[in-house]
Amino acid sequence: MIEMPVPDQTTLSRRAEIAAALRSIVPDGVIGDEATLKAYDRDALTAYGQIPLLCVLPVNADQVSAVLAFAARENIRVVPRGAGTSLSGGALPLADGILLGLTRMNRILDVDFANRCVVVQPGVTNAAVTKAVQNAGFYYAPDPSSQIACTIGGNVAENSGGIHCLKYGLTTHNLTGVEIALLGGERLRLGGKHAGDGGLDLMSVVCGSEGLLGVVTEATLRVLPRPPVTRTLLIAFDAIRAAGETVAAIIAAGIIPAALEFMDRRCIAAVEAFCAPHYPSDAEAILIAEIDGTPAEVSEDTRHIAEIASGLGAKEVRDCVDEAERMRVWSGRKAAFGAMGRLEPDMLCMDGTIPRRALPDVLDKISTLAQQYGLVCCNVFHAGDGNLHPLIVFDCMRGDELERAEAFGAEILKLCVAVGGVLTGEHGVGVEKKALMGEMFSAADLDQQQQLKCAFDDLGLLNPGKVFPTLHACVELGRMHVHGGRLPFANLPRM
Amino acid sequence: MRAAPQTEEEVADAVRQAAATGTAFEILSRGALRNYGRPVSADAILDVSAISGVVKYEPEELVLTACAGTPLPEIEALLAGKNQMLGFEPADWGPLFGEAAGNTTLAGIIATNACGARRFKAGAVRDHTIGCRFINGQGEAIKAGGHVIKNVTGFDLPKLMCGAFGTLGVLTELTLRVIPAPKRIATLVLKNCSAEAGFHALSQAAGLAADPTGLAYLPSKARAASAASDLSSSGVALIRVEGNSPAVVERLDLLYARFNDHDLATLDDDRTRAIFCEISDGGMFVSRSCDIWRLCVPPSQAHEAVELAGADFWYADWAGGLIWLDLPASEETAKRLRAITARLGGHATLMRASHEARTRFGVFEPEAPARANLTAAVKAAFDPGRILNPGRMYETI
User: Fold this and answer.
1) B155 touches chain A (CB under 8 A)
2) pLDDT tens-digit series, residues A451-468
3) Do B184-273 and B288-360 have matching folds?
4) Does the predicted TM-score (pTM) go above 0.80?
5) Dihedral over Cα of B255, B260, B262, B264: its sign
């Protein structure tokens, strides 16, 4: 079970008074009744739920600031939330915390083709950004699988990825500016439409900070001209090792595909039964390679990839002849998570990243572990960037399967770290993986990160209980530097 | 006083001792960029040049790990041997400060965010830095990030270290993503181009499927001082494209079609390399003894920014997002440039000036109070005793 901060009894007892105060800030946007709050009690890490103290839905940045100023003054915890699609529990509420929902701040503020960027409020969905610019031939590259629902504020907080990260990067690589509100309400602009900032690159740590450093109130995103041609290859193998070697050989040949996705035999079968994308049914593994660029460039790279794959023993290389076939091939990959529902009612999706060369060994070990734990695990893998998504299927109503699935998942993540990888490639640490942070980081490493947290939020009220296995109070870390009797950031409001 | 640790552990020891005695360090390896940034008020030098060498290079993983003091040419040669390169096109600014070319180290490049012409497309140094080890101001060895490209485990401290000028920690090891080197590169030159027409063309090119990786404008005087001197009698706009052989042909065709109302020329691989190297490195300023400012603005504001800045000698990179200016380090210039960034967005950096001028006017864009407080708090989170490069970025940082 996940350990969360102990609720503050005083705050719990002041609920009505706090609701009134919030209503004075956002008159039409405070949710206090239990039945409606229930809709906000969890994100996409569905195993964990908690009814929040109250939920507030501001419509502008000034209201966000006012809520955060109030929270700092009254010593109340705050959990920011976008669309609630986090797979790691990043938006899991606290019993004594205000849930700060940003979905009503959903306006696109500026579409600026001259500077190739779009300025949005945090509640704008990922897919809406591309929609706003596609008529002019542009698009926004990061494409997490929840893109029709997930918000840009959440994408920035989690540094969300997607299937095109090897070539186009994560959110952090496509973000040129943010406005954030600190706990206390102060707002800061970091970056903008110009390159970089004069001083420290603070935006780079805000992105991916899982809502622990500040609340995103505006983001400036880079949009790219859509490549004229996109082509997709479906490549089937009799052996996982050959698929792994093919990935390495493609990269070594100097080709960076727009996407390079791997699925194992179990996953292929589940997907085929679910939506019939016509994958070769007898393959041990398939790769889906997508190449984009100018026409002759794409032809050349496609030919080269097909040659490499055949040379390494691919049993079939299918070049999607038209858009319909291309969409069908992708439909299978995109339905992979949903298809698990046909196998068992519950699923845990792991998210470690490994060096690509370790893939065959890691899959062997996962298969051994699956037998040990008596559970089924299907594997999809962003092969281009090494991000592995083992999908553990189970039924939480059957004995101790949830506990076994969680223990199995933890073993997989430890394995990822042991082969030189990391705990999470794109889903975030949240509450789900915080207990495993010690696998990757020493106590000193984690203390240093918490010191940074204290620089932004010395009261520790913003999204506590996430990311870190043990949350220290800032004074406990004992390094607050008092110089000549002055606190180093004297202008920040303090309790 | 000079400490010259030979291992990461010895760096940590030196910093721990310094923290105990309140000794402030200026961190140096070869010192090629020592005069970039505010002058440091230090009691001793921490020479980390011995912390050198490539730790691990896995071409098929597109990842390289090297010690902080590794000379950059060593890394570039190693990568070139596998047809790979650093994606941010590292700039060599040593010669701007009277140092020999090729004298920078990996940590020097990272700490000063020395990225070149690809910045507008490929991102800055931060966008390619995926892991690091450093010694914080209390002498603790800290690891952050990882050795894989896709990683969101914990705060992204390696990116914060980029461009922090050694004020947050002594870098000891860095892990970078690398990219395949393009098989071919070429440049389309728009000859006899006014600044206004040039910036307009660069902005148009940035949005084309030709996917340019270099977009620079050289007005007549900068052109005359550059490797492109023979290309035109006045200003030139330069559009670099790259890819496999058919891609370069197609991209040039796209550009030819779009800019057929201009007087055009094409440059091959070697000339493209030479000119963009000069553009990245500020090469046209090497033989001038002037002070240098670098002005970053939204690319669409470049022309207005240039007019307002009023420099006689200048050129622009990053589609207009970066303008190199020959302007004196004076109260008047500082005021004028800050007014430009306040109005158009962006920031101005006093890249080269005397010790006295850099102390007096500062080097980086002054911060508003709220931001300055946060910067001070972040500094205190890493280096509470202010013993690492104190004053290098701002007087109190």
Assistant:
1) yes
2) 999 999 999 999 999 999
3) yes
4) yes
5) positive
CB-count burial class (<10 Å; 0-12, 13-18, 19+) for A62: middle
Which residues between 249 and 308 in chain B have a beta carbon less than 8 angstroms from any beta carbon of chain A?
249-251, 254, 296-300
- Residue B42 CA neighbour count, 13 Å, CB half: 25
Residue B58, chain A, CB below 8 Å: the answer is yes
Asked if A23 is an interface residue toward chain B (Cβ–Cβ < 8 A), one would say: no
pLDDT of A485 over the 50 cut: no
Q: Which of B60, B298, B370 minimises the CB distance to A356?
A: B60
Torsion of CA B193, B194, B195, B197, to 10 degrees: -70
b/e per residue A204-239 (b: at least 16 CB within 10 A) = bbbbbbbbbbbbbbbbbbbbbbbbbbbbbbbbbbee
| Main-chain phi, psi angles of B106, to 5 degrees | -55, -50
* H or E element at residue B57: strand B54-58
> Across-strand partners of B186?
B241
* Residues on chain A touching B377 (C-beta within 8 angstroms): 454-456, 458, 488-489, 492
Q: Which chain B residues contact residue A182 at CB under 8 A?
A: 374
Q: At what angle do helices B302-309 and B331-344 cross, to 10 degrees?
A: 160
Q: What is the distance between the alpha carbons of residues B316 and A340, in angstroms, rounded to a whole number?
A: 53
Q: Is B148 on the interface with A (CB under 8 A)?
A: yes
Cα Rg of chain A (Å, integer): 23
What does the alpha-carbon distance between residue B217 and residue B236 come to, in Å, rounded to a whole number? 6
Q: Which CATH number fits domain B184-273: 3.90.1200.10, 3.30.70.2190, 3.20.10.10, 3.40.50.300?
A: 3.30.70.2190
What is the average pLDDT across B103-117? 97
Q: For residue range B157-201, what is the model confidence (pLDDT) as tens digits?
A: 999 999 999 999 999 999 999 999 999 999 999 999 999 999 999
Quote the pLDDT of residue B77. Answer: 98
pLDDT of residue A2: 80
User: Who contacts B201 (Cβ-Cβ below 8 Å, separation ≥6)?
Assistant: B190, B193, B237, B239, B259, B262
Asked if A194 reaches chain B (Cβ–Cβ under 8 Å), the answer is yes
Residue of A nearest to B202 (CA): A114
Cβ contact B148–A451 (<8 Å)? no
Within the 317-356 window of chain A, which residues sit less than 8 Å (CB to CB) from chain B?
353-356
Which chain A residue shows the shortest CA-CA distance from B347? A198
SS3 for B373-397 is HHHHHHHHHHCCCCCECCCCCCCCC
User: Measured between alpha carbons, how far is A281 from A337 in angstroms, rounded to an integer?
Assistant: 19
- What does the domain layout of chain B look like in residue ranges? 47-180, 184-273, 288-360
According to CATH, the topology of domain B288-360 is Alpha-Beta Plaits (3.30.70)
Q: What CATH architecture applies to the domain B47-180?
A: 2-Layer Sandwich (3.30)
Predicted complex ipTM exceeds 0.85 = yes
Closest CA to B389 of B37, B16, B20: B37
Q: Helix, strand or coil for residue A391?
A: strand
All residues of chain B having their beta carbon less than 8 Å from the beta carbon of residue A483 are 386
Cβ separation of B146 and A422 shorter than 8 Å? Answer: yes
Rounded to whole angstroms, what are the CA distances from A128 to A163, A225, B179, B255, B324? 18, 16, 30, 30, 37
Tell me the sheet residues that pair with A45. none
